[in-house]
DNA sequence: AAGGATCTCAACCGCGACGGG
DNA sequence: TCCCGTCGCGGTTGAGATCCT
């Protein structure tokens, strides 16, 4: 469909970083006409971008109600809490954090977890055999999975910690308890 | 001061859901 | 009911910035 950039009739599609001029065009257009069907918006605004790209740029960068800058400790806690409940449903999590985007939260989470995983790697390596028989609540199938649904090794095999039975089954399988989150707070140290 | 390693974040990609014709 | 266009989401990548040795 859009895979033929040489097609003479199709306007060539720009990719990569947005220029200031493009930002201005998009912002002005939306200010005047509002958000709409993104594909036609891109064309109507005269941008050589896909509607998808315009949408992303607007939602993640240009929207006037965006809060840019450091995630506050309160927001951090909320993110952790919501991630424990919702998993990687970044857009859902973002809805609870006015002014923050799913992309921002996703990036924030991943870098945090990456850091945390590194910090605890020696432990994880040492206790890796615990996962072999699937005896813990964590289903680690790869390094990536470990990052996404990481369980602090201290709790591995210690399912009894959840014996209160308050954790819904589908959550119990992949996500952290609040205790985990609080302990991570301490590890982060900020 | 230089070079390498690591981190951060904007942007792209692929897929599934949804709605209209 | 099927097909097509569009949207929204989650995962991934790459470039620039920053830190470390």
From TrEMBL:
SUPFAM superfamilies tied to this protein: Homeodomain-like (SSF46689)
Residue stretches of biased makeup (Polar residues): 127-141
Domain spans labelled Myb-like: 10-62, 63-113
Subcellular locations according to the entry: Nucleus
SMART domains noted in UniProt: SANT (SM00717)
Domain HTH myb-type: start-end pairs: 10-62, 63-117
GO molecular function terms listed in the Swiss-Prot or TrEMBL record: DNA-binding transcription factor activity; promoter-specific chromatin binding; sequence-specific DNA binding
Start and end residues of each stretch annotated as Disordered: 117-141
Subunit structure: Interacts (via N-terminus) with TIFY10A/JAZ1, TIFY5A/JAZ8 AND TIFY3A/JAZ11.
UniProt-recorded name of the protein: Uncharacterized protein
Organism: Populus tomentosa
């Amino acid at each position: 469909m859009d895979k033929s950039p040489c097609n003479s009739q199709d306007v060539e599609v720009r990719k990569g970083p947005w220029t200031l001029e493009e930002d201005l065009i998009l912002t002005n257009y939306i200010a005047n006409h509002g958000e709409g069907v993104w594909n036609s918006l891109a064309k109507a605004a005269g941008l050589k971008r896909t509607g998808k790209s315009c949408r992303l740029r607007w939602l993640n960068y240009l929207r006037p109600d965006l809060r840019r800058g450091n995630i506050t400790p309160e927001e951090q806690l909320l993110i952790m809490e919501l991630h424990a409940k919702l998993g990687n449903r970044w857009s859902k999590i973002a809805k609870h954090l006015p002014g923050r985007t799913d992309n921002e939260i996703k990036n924030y989470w991943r870098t945090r977890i990456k850091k945390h995983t590194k910090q605890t790697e020696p432990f994880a390596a040492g206790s890796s055999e615990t996962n072999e028989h699937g005896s813990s609540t964590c289903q680690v199938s790869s390094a990536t999975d470990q990052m996404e649904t990481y369980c602090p090794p201290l709790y591995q095999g210690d399912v009894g910690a959840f014996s209160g039975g308050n954790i819904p089954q589908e959550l119990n399988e992949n996500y952290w308890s609040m205790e985990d989150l609080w302990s991570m707070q301490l590890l982060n140290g900020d």
